[in-house]
Amino acid sequence: MVVVLALVFIMMGSIAVTTLVVVWIATSRSLKKRGYHRKKGQETYEQVKSSLQGVAANLSELHSQLEGVEPFLLEREFLKYARQNRTTGKQSSSS
Length: 95
Known about the structure:
This protein has helices at residues 2-33, 40-94. The protein is mainly α.
């Protein structure tokens, strides 16, 4: 009885291993036909990472440029509202 049980386990184990190997080989061949390469994902990641670093550098450059212009922009904004208040003040005083 134990021998039969051992033979059944051996047969089922070998069938399972054979099935897994066949699926693995079929999957890898199918992926190769479609142009999959193992290191392609890593290469794409490196490209995206370098692009993001370039964008971050550009953003920091823009930020420093805007810091230089900020006082001028604040003055222009103040003058715009000062003109509006002047015209609004004239209209309300003439009423």
